Amino acid sequence: MANYKVSIDPRDNCISDMVCVSICPDVFEMNPDDNKSQIIEKWRPDPNNIAVGIIPEDLKSCAEDAANACPVQIIHVEPA
Ligand code: SF4
Known about the structure:
Layout: E1 3-8, H1 19-23, E2 28-30, E3 37-39, E4 52-56, H2 60-69, E5 75-79
The chain binds iron/sulfur cluster.
């Protein structure tokens, strides 16, 4: 099964509207400290980088829906 890379970049531009979390809570969550979106921990290849995840194919379409809906277009999904 193919994997996909999801990134939130530039994460600083997140306006905290939780659209991505609403659409795809299996990939995105809000960071309680800065109230911006982050990748949930289980998908982070680098535990110190909260803005990058490697997700399985079955989550690709919801991550893409979130990317398309993000009002500031900072979510990117690409083959890993
Ligand atoms: S949809 Fe975009 S702006 Fe909204 S919380 Fe997610 S990353 Fe931030």
